Protein backbone atom coordinates (compact mmCIF):
# COMPACT_ATOMS: atom_id res chain seq x y z
CA UNK A 1 0.00 0.00 0.00
CA UNK A 2 2.75 2.43 1.06
CA UNK A 3 4.84 1.32 -1.91
CA UNK A 4 1.92 1.93 -4.25
CA UNK A 5 1.41 5.37 -2.73
CA UNK A 6 5.11 6.23 -3.14
CA UNK A 7 5.18 5.00 -6.72
CA UNK A 8 2.06 6.99 -7.44
CA UNK A 9 3.59 10.09 -5.86
CA UNK A 10 6.77 9.73 -7.93
CA UNK A 11 4.68 9.32 -11.07
CA UNK A 12 2.53 12.37 -10.30
CA UNK A 13 5.63 14.38 -9.44
CA UNK A 14 7.25 13.38 -12.76
CA UNK A 15 4.09 14.14 -14.70
CA UNK A 16 3.85 17.52 -13.02
CA UNK A 17 7.50 18.34 -13.74
CA UNK A 18 7.11 17.15 -17.33
CA UNK A 19 4.17 19.51 -17.75
CA UNK A 20 6.29 22.41 -16.55
CA UNK A 21 9.53 21.57 -18.33
CA UNK A 22 9.92 24.26 -20.99
CA UNK A 23 10.95 22.04 -23.92
CA UNK A 24 11.32 24.47 -26.81
CA UNK A 25 11.35 23.70 -30.53
CA UNK A 26 14.83 23.99 -32.04
CA UNK A 27 14.75 25.12 -35.66
CA UNK A 28 17.29 26.38 -38.19
CA UNK A 29 17.25 29.88 -36.60
CA UNK A 30 17.60 28.81 -32.99
CA UNK A 31 21.38 29.03 -32.75
CA UNK A 32 21.24 32.71 -33.69
CA UNK A 33 18.60 33.31 -31.00
CA UNK A 34 20.66 31.41 -28.47
CA UNK A 35 23.74 33.42 -29.34
CA UNK A 36 21.82 36.64 -28.70
CA UNK A 37 20.43 35.23 -25.45
CA UNK A 38 23.91 34.40 -24.14
CA UNK A 39 25.52 37.61 -25.40
CA UNK A 40 29.20 37.68 -24.32
CA UNK A 41 28.69 34.60 -22.16
CA UNK A 42 30.17 31.14 -22.72
CA UNK A 43 27.80 28.19 -23.05
CA UNK A 44 27.89 24.48 -23.71
CA UNK A 45 25.51 23.19 -26.42
CA UNK A 46 24.81 19.43 -26.40
CA UNK A 47 22.84 17.38 -28.96
CA UNK A 48 21.51 13.93 -28.07
CA UNK A 49 18.72 11.45 -28.85
CA UNK A 50 16.67 8.85 -26.99
CA UNK A 51 18.15 6.05 -29.09
CA UNK A 52 21.80 6.88 -28.36
CA UNK A 53 23.39 4.77 -25.57
CA UNK A 54 26.46 7.02 -25.39
CA UNK A 55 24.19 10.04 -24.71
CA UNK A 56 23.00 8.56 -21.40
CA UNK A 57 26.61 7.95 -20.37
CA UNK A 58 27.23 11.63 -21.09
CA UNK A 59 24.12 12.69 -19.15
CA UNK A 60 25.50 11.11 -15.97
CA UNK A 61 28.60 13.30 -16.30
CA UNK A 62 26.64 16.42 -17.29
CA UNK A 63 24.18 15.99 -14.45
CA UNK A 64 27.01 15.91 -11.91
CA UNK A 65 28.72 18.91 -13.53
CA UNK A 66 25.51 20.95 -13.63
CA UNK A 67 24.80 20.15 -10.00
CA UNK A 68 28.23 21.50 -9.01
CA UNK A 69 28.12 24.47 -11.37
CA UNK A 70 24.50 25.62 -11.48
CA UNK A 71 25.43 29.00 -12.98
CA UNK A 72 27.25 27.56 -16.00
CA UNK A 73 25.10 27.68 -19.10
CA UNK A 74 24.11 24.27 -20.47
CA UNK A 75 21.85 23.94 -23.51
CA UNK A 76 20.53 20.45 -24.29
CA UNK A 77 18.87 19.72 -27.64
CA UNK A 78 17.15 16.43 -28.47
CA UNK A 79 17.27 15.46 -32.15
CA UNK A 80 14.23 13.18 -31.72
CA UNK A 81 10.93 13.75 -33.56
CA UNK A 82 8.57 16.22 -31.91
CA UNK A 83 6.11 13.48 -30.98
CA UNK A 84 8.76 11.97 -28.67
CA UNK A 85 8.67 15.10 -26.48
CA UNK A 86 7.17 13.33 -23.45
CA UNK A 87 9.89 10.68 -23.41
CA UNK A 88 12.56 13.35 -23.87
CA UNK A 89 11.21 15.27 -20.89
CA UNK A 90 11.14 12.13 -18.74
CA UNK A 91 14.82 11.43 -19.45
CA UNK A 92 15.82 15.01 -18.63
CA UNK A 93 13.90 14.75 -15.37
CA UNK A 94 15.49 11.39 -14.56
CA UNK A 95 18.98 12.86 -15.03
CA UNK A 96 18.06 16.03 -13.15
CA UNK A 97 18.91 18.20 -16.12
CA UNK A 98 15.72 20.23 -15.89
CA UNK A 99 17.57 23.37 -14.82
CA UNK A 100 19.24 23.47 -18.22
CA UNK A 101 18.00 25.22 -21.32
CA UNK A 102 16.19 22.30 -23.04
CA UNK A 103 15.03 21.88 -26.63
CA UNK A 104 13.80 19.34 -29.19
CA UNK A 105 14.22 19.42 -32.98
CA UNK A 106 11.29 21.18 -34.67
CA UNK A 107 9.45 19.73 -37.65
CA UNK A 108 12.12 20.72 -40.20
CA UNK A 109 14.41 18.38 -42.16
CA UNK A 110 17.08 17.31 -39.69
CA UNK A 111 19.77 17.95 -42.33
CA UNK A 112 18.58 21.57 -42.57
CA UNK A 113 18.78 22.04 -38.82
CA UNK A 114 22.16 20.31 -38.65
CA UNK A 115 23.49 22.46 -41.46
CA UNK A 116 22.38 25.61 -39.62
CA UNK A 117 24.54 24.60 -36.66
CA UNK A 118 27.61 23.15 -38.33
CA UNK A 119 28.04 22.21 -41.99
CA UNK A 120 30.71 19.66 -41.03
CA UNK A 121 28.54 17.66 -38.62
CA UNK A 122 27.58 14.25 -40.07
CA UNK A 123 24.84 13.65 -37.49
CA UNK A 124 26.64 11.38 -35.02
CA UNK A 125 25.57 11.68 -31.36
CA UNK A 126 26.23 12.93 -28.79
CA UNK A 127 27.66 16.07 -30.40
CA UNK A 128 28.80 19.01 -28.27
CA UNK A 129 29.88 22.57 -28.95
CA UNK A 130 31.86 24.64 -26.46
CA UNK A 131 31.05 28.31 -27.16
CA UNK A 132 33.41 30.86 -25.61
CA UNK A 133 32.31 34.40 -24.65
CA UNK A 134 32.96 35.59 -28.23
CA UNK A 135 30.90 32.61 -29.40
CA UNK A 136 33.74 30.93 -31.21
CA UNK A 137 33.01 27.22 -30.88
CA UNK A 138 34.89 23.97 -30.54
CA UNK A 139 33.05 20.75 -31.52
CA UNK A 140 33.30 17.28 -29.99
CA UNK A 141 31.69 13.97 -31.07
CA UNK A 142 31.12 11.27 -28.46
CA UNK A 143 30.37 11.31 -24.75
CA UNK A 144 31.96 14.17 -22.82
CA UNK A 145 34.14 13.16 -19.90
CA UNK A 146 34.50 14.71 -16.43
CA UNK A 147 38.03 15.77 -17.39
CA UNK A 148 36.74 17.70 -20.43
CA UNK A 149 34.10 19.44 -18.34
CA UNK A 150 36.62 20.28 -15.62
CA UNK A 151 38.87 21.87 -18.25
CA UNK A 152 35.87 23.74 -19.68
CA UNK A 153 34.87 24.99 -16.23
CA UNK A 154 38.39 26.25 -15.63
CA UNK A 155 38.30 28.04 -19.01
CA UNK A 156 34.93 29.66 -18.18
CA UNK A 157 36.24 30.85 -14.80
CA UNK A 158 39.28 32.42 -16.51
CA UNK A 159 37.01 34.20 -19.00
CA UNK A 160 34.80 35.57 -16.23
CA UNK A 161 37.86 36.76 -14.31
CA UNK A 162 39.22 38.47 -17.45
CA UNK A 163 35.83 40.09 -18.06
CA UNK A 164 35.63 41.38 -14.47
CA UNK A 165 39.07 43.00 -14.80
CA UNK B 1 -18.92 25.92 -90.34
CA UNK B 2 -21.78 23.37 -90.48
CA UNK B 3 -23.55 22.13 -87.38
CA UNK B 4 -22.23 18.61 -88.07
CA UNK B 5 -18.63 19.80 -88.19
CA UNK B 6 -19.12 21.88 -85.07
CA UNK B 7 -20.58 18.84 -83.27
CA UNK B 8 -17.60 16.67 -84.38
CA UNK B 9 -15.10 19.23 -83.06
CA UNK B 10 -16.97 19.44 -79.73
CA UNK B 11 -17.02 15.64 -79.44
CA UNK B 12 -13.27 15.44 -80.24
CA UNK B 13 -12.56 18.12 -77.65
CA UNK B 14 -14.69 16.27 -75.10
CA UNK B 15 -12.88 13.01 -75.95
CA UNK B 16 -9.48 14.67 -75.54
CA UNK B 17 -10.54 16.18 -72.21
CA UNK B 18 -11.85 12.81 -71.03
CA UNK B 19 -8.60 11.09 -72.06
CA UNK B 20 -6.61 13.80 -70.28
CA UNK B 21 -8.64 13.37 -67.10
CA UNK B 22 -8.33 9.56 -67.26
CA UNK B 23 -4.55 9.86 -67.72
CA UNK B 24 -4.34 12.34 -64.87
CA UNK B 25 -6.21 9.90 -62.63
CA UNK B 26 -4.09 6.90 -63.65
CA UNK B 27 -0.69 8.58 -63.67
CA UNK B 28 -1.01 10.81 -60.64
CA UNK B 29 -0.25 9.15 -57.32
CA UNK B 30 -3.38 9.04 -55.15
CA UNK B 31 -1.93 11.32 -52.52
CA UNK B 32 -2.94 14.82 -51.60
CA UNK B 33 -2.43 14.98 -47.86
CA UNK B 34 -2.85 12.71 -44.88
CA UNK B 35 -6.16 13.11 -43.15
CA UNK B 36 -6.54 12.03 -39.56
CA UNK B 37 -6.74 8.26 -39.14
CA UNK B 38 -6.12 7.63 -42.84
CA UNK B 39 -4.14 4.36 -42.99
CA UNK B 40 -1.89 4.53 -46.02
CA UNK B 41 1.63 3.89 -47.31
CA UNK B 42 1.86 7.65 -47.81
CA UNK B 43 0.89 8.54 -44.25
CA UNK B 44 2.41 5.68 -42.24
CA UNK B 45 5.97 5.64 -40.95
CA UNK B 46 8.97 3.92 -42.58
CA UNK B 47 7.33 2.34 -45.66
CA UNK B 48 9.58 -0.40 -47.03
CA UNK B 49 8.85 -2.00 -50.41
CA UNK B 50 9.74 -5.07 -52.45
CA UNK B 51 8.50 -6.69 -55.66
CA UNK B 52 7.24 -10.26 -55.95
CA UNK B 53 8.15 -12.42 -58.95
CA UNK B 54 5.00 -11.32 -60.81
CA UNK B 55 5.85 -7.63 -60.56
CA UNK B 56 3.42 -6.77 -57.75
CA UNK B 57 4.83 -4.15 -55.39
CA UNK B 58 4.43 -4.94 -51.68
CA UNK B 59 4.96 -2.33 -48.97
CA UNK B 60 5.09 -2.64 -45.20
CA UNK B 61 4.64 0.43 -42.98
CA UNK B 62 3.71 1.38 -39.41
CA UNK B 63 0.74 3.40 -38.25
CA UNK B 64 -1.28 3.59 -35.01
CA UNK B 65 0.83 0.95 -33.21
CA UNK B 66 0.38 -1.57 -36.02
CA UNK B 67 2.42 -2.92 -38.89
CA UNK B 68 0.46 -2.93 -42.16
CA UNK B 69 1.06 -4.24 -45.67
CA UNK B 70 -0.37 -3.04 -48.94
CA UNK B 71 0.24 -3.94 -52.60
CA UNK B 72 0.26 -2.10 -55.89
CA UNK B 73 -0.15 -3.55 -59.40
CA UNK B 74 0.68 -0.29 -61.18
CA UNK B 75 4.15 0.48 -59.81
CA UNK B 76 3.01 2.45 -56.82
CA UNK B 77 0.36 4.68 -58.40
CA UNK B 78 -2.47 3.09 -56.45
CA UNK B 79 -2.18 0.87 -53.39
CA UNK B 80 -4.58 -1.78 -52.06
CA UNK B 81 -6.44 -1.41 -48.76
CA UNK B 82 -3.88 -2.02 -46.02
CA UNK B 83 -3.97 -5.31 -44.09
CA UNK B 84 -2.88 -5.40 -40.46
CA UNK B 85 0.03 -7.72 -39.66
CA UNK B 86 0.06 -7.67 -35.82
CA UNK B 87 -3.35 -8.33 -34.31
CA UNK B 88 -2.73 -6.55 -31.02
CA UNK B 89 -1.41 -2.97 -30.89
CA UNK B 90 2.25 -2.62 -29.93
CA UNK B 91 4.94 0.02 -30.10
CA UNK B 92 7.08 -0.63 -33.16
CA UNK B 93 10.52 0.91 -33.76
CA UNK B 94 10.23 3.29 -36.69
CA UNK B 95 13.34 5.36 -36.92
CA UNK B 96 14.95 5.27 -40.34
CA UNK B 97 17.58 2.75 -39.28
CA UNK B 98 15.19 0.46 -37.40
CA UNK B 99 12.02 -0.38 -39.37
CA UNK B 100 9.82 -3.32 -40.42
CA UNK B 101 10.97 -5.42 -43.40
CA UNK B 102 8.88 -7.27 -45.99
CA UNK B 103 10.07 -10.14 -48.19
CA UNK B 104 8.39 -12.85 -50.29
CA UNK B 105 9.48 -16.31 -51.37
CA UNK B 106 8.90 -17.74 -54.84
CA UNK B 107 5.72 -19.47 -53.66
CA UNK B 108 4.09 -16.12 -52.89
CA UNK B 109 4.34 -16.40 -49.09
CA UNK B 110 4.73 -12.98 -47.49
CA UNK B 111 7.09 -12.48 -44.56
CA UNK B 112 7.27 -9.42 -42.31
CA UNK B 113 9.79 -8.80 -39.52
CA UNK B 114 9.91 -5.88 -37.10
CA UNK B 115 11.20 -4.84 -33.68
CA UNK B 116 8.63 -4.38 -30.93
CA UNK B 117 9.55 -1.75 -28.34
CA UNK B 118 9.26 -3.35 -24.91
CA UNK B 119 9.35 -1.56 -21.52
CA UNK B 120 12.76 -0.15 -20.63
CA UNK B 121 15.53 1.70 -22.42
CA UNK B 122 16.98 0.27 -25.68
CA UNK B 123 14.83 -2.82 -25.23
CA UNK B 124 12.87 -4.78 -27.78
CA UNK B 125 11.87 -8.15 -29.22
CA UNK B 126 12.32 -9.33 -32.80
CA UNK B 127 8.92 -10.16 -34.28
CA UNK B 128 7.94 -12.13 -37.38
CA UNK B 129 4.62 -12.94 -39.04
CA UNK B 130 3.75 -14.60 -42.35
CA UNK B 131 0.83 -14.72 -44.73
CA UNK B 132 0.34 -17.87 -46.78
CA UNK B 133 -2.82 -16.64 -48.52
CA UNK B 134 -1.44 -13.80 -50.60
CA UNK B 135 -1.69 -11.15 -47.91
CA UNK B 136 -5.39 -11.54 -46.99
CA UNK B 137 -4.42 -12.22 -43.40
CA UNK B 138 -1.35 -12.89 -41.26
CA UNK B 139 -0.74 -15.74 -38.84
CA UNK B 140 0.03 -14.96 -35.19
CA UNK B 141 3.31 -13.18 -34.71
CA UNK B 142 6.36 -15.06 -33.40
CA UNK B 143 9.11 -13.83 -31.12
CA UNK B 144 12.42 -14.74 -32.77
CA UNK B 145 14.84 -13.99 -29.91
CA UNK B 146 14.81 -17.04 -27.63
CA UNK B 147 16.72 -15.92 -24.52
CA UNK B 148 13.61 -14.89 -22.59
CA UNK B 149 15.35 -11.75 -21.33
CA UNK B 150 13.71 -8.29 -21.15
CA UNK B 151 16.70 -6.65 -22.83
CA UNK B 152 17.67 -5.21 -26.22
CA UNK B 153 16.98 -7.29 -29.34
CA UNK B 154 16.68 -4.70 -32.08
CA UNK B 155 17.53 -3.65 -35.64
CA UNK B 156 16.12 -6.75 -37.37
CA UNK B 157 17.28 -7.49 -40.92
CA UNK B 158 15.66 -10.17 -43.10
CA UNK B 159 16.37 -11.86 -46.41
CA UNK B 160 14.89 -14.84 -48.26
CA UNK B 161 17.18 -17.05 -50.37
CA UNK B 162 16.25 -18.49 -53.80
CA UNK B 163 15.82 -21.88 -52.09
CA UNK B 164 13.27 -20.34 -49.70
CA UNK B 165 15.30 -20.09 -46.48
CA UNK B 166 14.45 -17.05 -44.32
CA UNK B 167 17.33 -15.43 -42.44
CA UNK B 168 16.66 -12.87 -39.70
CA UNK B 169 19.66 -11.18 -38.05
CA UNK B 170 19.57 -8.58 -35.25
CA UNK B 171 21.60 -6.74 -32.61
CA UNK B 172 21.33 -8.47 -29.25
CA UNK B 173 22.29 -7.35 -25.75
CA UNK B 174 22.44 -10.74 -23.98
CA UNK B 175 26.26 -10.99 -23.89
CA UNK B 176 26.65 -7.36 -22.84
CA UNK B 177 24.01 -7.83 -20.11
CA UNK B 178 25.73 -10.98 -18.82
CA UNK B 179 29.12 -9.23 -18.69
CA UNK B 180 27.70 -6.24 -16.87
CA UNK B 181 25.93 -8.56 -14.43
CA UNK B 182 29.38 -9.92 -13.60
CA UNK B 183 30.74 -6.41 -13.16
CA UNK B 184 32.76 -6.50 -16.38
CA UNK B 185 33.06 -3.75 -18.96
CA UNK B 186 31.72 -4.73 -22.37
CA UNK B 187 32.04 -2.74 -25.57
CA UNK B 188 28.89 -2.66 -27.71
CA UNK B 189 26.49 -5.59 -28.06
CA UNK B 190 26.27 -8.74 -30.25
CA UNK B 191 24.93 -9.94 -33.60
CA UNK B 192 22.66 -13.01 -33.63
CA UNK B 193 20.53 -14.73 -36.27
CA UNK B 194 17.90 -17.43 -36.77
CA UNK B 195 16.92 -19.26 -39.93
CA UNK B 196 13.70 -20.90 -41.08
CA UNK B 197 13.69 -23.79 -43.54
CA UNK B 198 9.91 -24.33 -43.52
CA UNK B 199 8.66 -21.04 -44.99
CA UNK B 200 8.49 -19.30 -41.63
CA UNK B 201 6.48 -21.95 -39.74
CA UNK B 202 9.40 -22.37 -37.30
CA UNK B 203 12.86 -20.88 -36.77
CA UNK B 204 16.15 -22.37 -35.62
CA UNK B 205 17.54 -21.59 -32.16
CA UNK B 206 19.39 -18.25 -32.04
CA UNK B 207 22.96 -18.38 -33.35
CA UNK B 208 25.67 -15.93 -32.30
CA UNK B 209 27.61 -14.32 -35.17
CA UNK B 210 29.82 -11.80 -33.40
CA UNK B 211 30.31 -9.94 -30.13
CA UNK B 212 31.19 -6.23 -29.77
CA UNK B 213 29.05 -4.72 -32.49
CA UNK B 214 27.89 -1.10 -32.64
CA UNK B 215 24.51 -0.67 -30.90
CA UNK B 216 22.61 1.73 -33.11
CA UNK B 217 23.22 1.14 -36.84
CA UNK B 218 21.14 -0.90 -39.26
CA UNK B 219 22.46 -4.29 -40.39
CA UNK B 220 22.80 -5.03 -44.12
CA UNK B 221 21.80 -8.50 -45.31
CA UNK B 222 21.53 -10.11 -48.76
CA UNK B 223 20.99 -13.66 -49.95
CA UNK B 224 24.10 -15.44 -51.21
CA UNK B 225 23.91 -18.35 -53.64
CA UNK B 226 20.97 -20.71 -53.21
CA UNK B 227 20.81 -20.98 -49.44
CA UNK B 228 23.21 -18.64 -47.64
CA UNK B 229 23.21 -14.97 -46.68
CA UNK B 230 25.84 -12.23 -46.42
CA UNK B 231 25.60 -9.86 -43.49
CA UNK B 232 27.54 -6.63 -42.89
CA UNK B 233 27.43 -4.44 -39.81
CA UNK B 234 29.29 -1.72 -37.93
CA UNK B 235 31.66 -3.45 -35.53
CA UNK B 236 33.80 -2.24 -32.65
CA UNK B 237 37.31 -3.36 -33.53
CA UNK B 238 40.38 -3.19 -31.35
CA UNK B 239 41.11 0.32 -30.13
CA UNK B 240 37.43 1.33 -30.31
CA UNK B 241 37.41 1.58 -34.14
CA UNK B 242 33.80 1.54 -35.34
CA UNK B 243 34.48 0.17 -38.83
CA UNK B 244 32.57 -2.60 -40.62
CA UNK B 245 32.65 -6.38 -40.49
CA UNK B 246 31.17 -8.95 -42.88
CA UNK B 247 30.47 -12.67 -42.85
CA UNK B 248 28.37 -15.44 -44.39
CA UNK B 249 25.41 -17.02 -42.61
CA UNK B 250 24.51 -20.62 -43.44
CA UNK B 251 21.74 -22.90 -42.15
CA UNK B 252 24.42 -24.58 -40.03
CA UNK B 253 26.21 -21.57 -38.57
CA UNK B 254 28.13 -18.41 -39.36
CA UNK B 255 31.59 -18.15 -40.92
CA UNK B 256 34.33 -16.30 -39.08
CA UNK B 257 34.06 -12.54 -39.44
CA UNK B 258 36.22 -10.40 -41.74
CA UNK B 259 36.99 -6.72 -41.59
CA UNK B 260 35.18 -5.14 -44.53
CA UNK B 261 36.28 -1.52 -44.12
CA UNK B 262 39.37 0.12 -42.67
CA UNK B 263 38.27 3.68 -41.96
CA UNK B 264 39.81 4.09 -38.48
CA UNK B 265 36.77 5.75 -36.96
CA UNK B 266 37.63 5.79 -33.28
CA UNK B 267 34.57 7.07 -31.48
CA UNK B 268 32.14 6.23 -28.71
CA UNK B 269 29.42 8.21 -30.47
CA UNK B 270 26.32 6.66 -32.09
CA UNK B 271 26.56 7.05 -35.87
CA UNK B 272 22.93 5.92 -36.54
CA UNK B 273 24.23 5.14 -39.98
CA UNK B 274 24.44 1.52 -41.17
CA UNK B 275 25.80 0.06 -44.42
CA UNK B 276 24.15 -1.61 -47.42
CA UNK B 277 25.22 -4.59 -49.56
CA UNK B 278 24.27 -6.58 -52.65
CA UNK B 279 25.91 -9.77 -53.86
CA UNK B 280 27.40 -9.79 -57.35
CA UNK B 281 28.60 -13.42 -57.22
CA UNK B 282 29.59 -16.12 -54.77
CA UNK B 283 32.79 -14.25 -53.88
CA UNK B 284 32.03 -10.60 -54.71
CA UNK B 285 29.82 -8.31 -52.65
CA UNK B 286 29.06 -4.66 -53.39
CA UNK B 287 29.36 -2.55 -50.24
CA UNK B 288 28.38 1.01 -49.47
CA UNK B 289 28.88 2.64 -46.11
CA UNK B 290 29.37 5.84 -44.14
CA UNK B 291 32.36 6.70 -41.99
CA UNK B 292 33.82 9.71 -40.24
CA UNK B 293 37.15 8.02 -39.65
CA UNK B 294 40.73 9.18 -39.92
CA UNK B 295 41.07 7.52 -43.34
CA UNK B 296 37.59 7.93 -44.80
CA UNK B 297 34.98 10.64 -44.21
CA UNK B 298 31.66 10.43 -46.03
CA UNK B 299 29.93 7.79 -48.15
CA UNK B 300 32.05 5.11 -49.80
CA UNK B 301 31.68 2.14 -52.13
CA UNK B 302 33.83 -0.98 -52.41
CA UNK B 303 33.76 -4.62 -53.49
CA UNK B 304 34.44 -7.23 -50.83
CA UNK B 305 36.22 -10.30 -52.21
CA UNK B 306 35.49 -13.10 -49.79
CA UNK B 307 38.06 -15.47 -51.32
CA UNK B 308 40.80 -12.85 -50.75
CA UNK B 309 39.26 -11.47 -47.56
CA UNK B 310 39.71 -7.88 -48.72
CA UNK B 311 37.78 -4.90 -50.06
CA UNK B 312 38.89 -3.41 -53.38
CA UNK B 313 37.65 -0.74 -55.83
CA UNK B 314 37.06 1.67 -52.94
CA UNK B 315 35.74 5.01 -54.17
CA UNK B 316 34.48 8.19 -52.50
CA UNK B 317 30.78 8.40 -53.40
CA UNK B 318 30.00 11.70 -51.69
CA UNK B 319 32.10 13.25 -48.95
CA UNK B 320 29.80 16.17 -48.14
CA UNK B 321 28.64 16.09 -44.49
CA UNK B 322 24.97 16.11 -45.51
CA UNK B 323 25.28 12.94 -47.65
CA UNK B 324 23.63 10.01 -45.90
CA UNK B 325 22.06 6.55 -45.93
CA UNK B 326 23.44 5.03 -49.13
CA UNK B 327 21.97 2.02 -50.95
CA UNK B 328 23.62 -0.27 -53.49
CA UNK B 329 22.00 -2.65 -55.97
CA UNK B 330 23.14 -4.77 -58.90
CA UNK B 331 20.57 -4.88 -61.72
CA UNK B 332 21.00 -5.98 -65.34
CA UNK B 333 24.80 -5.68 -65.39
CA UNK B 334 24.70 -2.21 -63.83
CA UNK B 335 25.59 -1.37 -60.23
CA UNK B 336 23.48 1.47 -58.83
CA UNK B 337 24.17 3.69 -55.84
CA UNK B 338 21.57 6.02 -54.34
CA UNK B 339 21.85 8.30 -51.31
CA UNK B 340 20.25 11.31 -49.71
CA UNK B 341 21.84 14.72 -49.42
CA UNK B 342 20.85 18.25 -48.52
CA UNK B 343 21.70 21.49 -50.33
CA UNK B 344 20.05 24.89 -50.72
CA UNK B 345 17.12 24.17 -48.41
CA UNK B 346 16.13 20.94 -50.15
CA UNK B 347 16.76 17.22 -49.64
CA UNK B 348 17.87 15.39 -52.79
CA UNK B 349 18.35 11.81 -53.87
CA UNK B 350 21.45 11.36 -55.98
CA UNK B 351 22.57 8.30 -57.94
CA UNK B 352 25.72 7.00 -59.56
CA UNK B 353 26.02 3.89 -61.74
CA UNK B 354 28.79 1.58 -62.87
CA UNK B 355 28.72 -0.53 -66.04
CA UNK B 356 31.76 -2.60 -65.07
CA UNK B 357 31.07 -4.04 -61.62
CA UNK B 358 32.17 -0.99 -59.69
CA UNK B 359 35.48 -0.24 -61.42
CA UNK B 360 34.35 3.05 -62.98
CA UNK B 361 31.39 5.23 -61.97
CA UNK B 362 29.20 7.89 -63.55
CA UNK B 363 29.13 11.36 -61.99
CA UNK B 364 26.49 12.00 -59.29
CA UNK B 365 23.09 12.77 -60.80
CA UNK B 366 20.13 14.28 -58.95
CA UNK B 367 16.95 12.24 -59.36
CA UNK B 368 14.36 13.89 -57.14
CA UNK B 369 14.08 16.46 -54.35
CA UNK B 370 11.74 17.66 -51.62
CA UNK B 371 11.40 20.70 -49.39
CA UNK B 372 10.06 18.93 -46.31
CA UNK B 373 11.01 15.98 -44.13
CA UNK B 374 11.89 12.71 -45.80
CA UNK B 375 12.67 9.05 -45.12
CA UNK B 376 15.78 7.14 -46.21
CA UNK B 377 15.93 6.17 -49.92
CA UNK B 378 15.63 2.53 -51.07
CA UNK B 379 16.56 0.73 -54.29
CA UNK B 380 14.43 -2.18 -55.51
CA UNK B 381 13.76 -3.98 -58.78
CA UNK B 382 11.22 -6.15 -60.56
CA UNK B 383 12.27 -8.32 -63.49
CA UNK B 384 12.33 -5.38 -65.94
CA UNK B 385 13.32 -2.19 -64.12
CA UNK B 386 15.15 -0.78 -61.14
CA UNK B 387 13.37 1.80 -58.97
CA UNK B 388 14.00 4.30 -56.23
CA UNK B 389 11.42 4.26 -53.41
CA UNK B 390 11.31 7.41 -51.28
CA UNK B 391 8.67 8.64 -48.86
CA UNK B 392 8.55 12.38 -48.29
CA UNK B 393 6.28 14.42 -46.05
CA UNK B 394 5.00 16.58 -48.90
CA UNK B 395 4.70 14.00 -51.68
CA UNK B 396 4.04 10.65 -49.96
CA UNK B 397 5.69 7.41 -51.09
CA UNK B 398 7.10 7.68 -54.61
CA UNK B 399 8.43 4.90 -56.83
CA UNK B 400 10.72 6.30 -59.51
CA UNK B 401 12.11 4.13 -62.32
CA UNK B 402 15.83 4.83 -62.64
CA UNK B 403 16.45 3.34 -66.06
CA UNK B 404 13.77 5.39 -67.83
CA UNK B 405 15.04 8.99 -67.59
CA UNK B 406 11.91 10.49 -69.21
CA UNK B 407 9.75 9.23 -66.34
CA UNK B 408 11.79 10.91 -63.59
CA UNK B 409 10.06 13.64 -61.67
If helices are DSSP runs of H or I spanning 4 or more residues, what is the number of helices of chain B? 2
Shape of chain B: globular
Largest sheet of chain A: 6 strands, mixed
Most extensive interface, residues per chain? A-B, 28 and 27 residues
Proportion in β-strands of chain A: 15-25%
Report the average pLDDT across residues of chain B. 91
In whole angstroms, how far apart are the ends of chain B?
43 Å
**What's the count of strands of chain B?**
28
Structural class call of chain B reads mainly beta
What form of chain A results from the Cα inertia axes?
Answer: globular
User: Got a strand count of chain A?
Assistant: 6
Order of SSEs of chain B:
HEEEEEEEEEEHEEEEEEEEEEEEEEEEEE
Helices and strands of chain A: which structural class?
Answer: alpha/beta
Assess the beta-strand content of chain B as a share of residues.
35-45%
**Spatial ordering of strands, largest sheet of chain A:** 1-4-3-2-5-6
Distance between the termini of chain A: 60 Å
Helix content class of chain A: 40-55%
Rg result of chain A = 17 Å
Question: What oligomeric state do these chains adopt?
Answer: heterodimer
Any low-confidence stretches of chain A, pLDDT <50, length ≥5? 1-18
Biggest pleated-sheet summary of chain B: 5 strands, antiparallel
Amino acid sequence: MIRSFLLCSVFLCQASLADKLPLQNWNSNSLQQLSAHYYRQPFLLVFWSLDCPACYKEFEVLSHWKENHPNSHLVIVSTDPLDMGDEVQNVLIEYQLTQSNVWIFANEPSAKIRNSIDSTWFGELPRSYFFDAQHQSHAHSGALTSAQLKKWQSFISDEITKHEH
Amino acid sequence: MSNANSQTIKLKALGTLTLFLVLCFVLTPIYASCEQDQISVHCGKTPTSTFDQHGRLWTSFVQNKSVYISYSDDKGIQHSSPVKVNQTPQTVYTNGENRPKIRLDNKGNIFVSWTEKTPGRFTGDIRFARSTDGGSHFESQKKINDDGLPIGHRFDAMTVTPSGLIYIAWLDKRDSAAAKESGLDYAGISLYYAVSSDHGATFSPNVKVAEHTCECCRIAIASKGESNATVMWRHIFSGGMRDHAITTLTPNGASSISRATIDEWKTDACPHHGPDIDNLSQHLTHLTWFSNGALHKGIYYGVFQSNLNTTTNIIEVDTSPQASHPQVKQFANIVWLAWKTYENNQSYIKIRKSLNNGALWSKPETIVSTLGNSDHPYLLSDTKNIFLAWQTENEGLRLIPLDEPSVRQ
